[in-house]
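Sequence in, structure out.
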Amino acid sequence: QVQLVESGGGLVQAGGSLRLSCAASGLTFSSYTMAWFRQAPGKEREFVAVISWSGRITDYADSVRGRFTISRDNAKNTAYLQMNSLKPEDTAVYSCAAAPTNRPRLSEYKYWGQGTQVTVSS
């Protein structure tokens, strides 16, 4: 049974930082592209960041580029999202997802976590 479990969310003031973790089990983690998505109340889910299976290739939404960093530790079956210079508009539920393909389309993400709440106060 595959599980993706996010942690590290919370309440932080604008300008602060948080580090999210996504612990994976039940899959060959090093064979999966990992990504973070977020969904704010009343809004569509949006892409945040993605990292290739090797960790060598990353990409970011324009809204977070330069502030967020995605990484992974294949030995620990864990992906991370370091979020710096947080803004109130970053408030959302953040979920990690795993895809068995390179450069996956949204429909190719096979496994999803339940999400962790990030709230940024002004």
